[in-house]
Amino acid sequence: MPVTNEKSTRFTDEVRSISPWAFLLAALAFVGMTALLVIVTHGDKTAPPPAVMVLLGILAGTLIACYILLIGYVNRDAGRRGMSRVLWTLLAIFVPNALGIVLYFILRKPRLLNCPQCRAVVEPGFGFCPRCRYRLSPVCPHCQHGVNLGDKFCPYCGGDLGTGMNAASTQVPIQK
Question: Global pTM?
Answer without folding.
Answer: 0.66
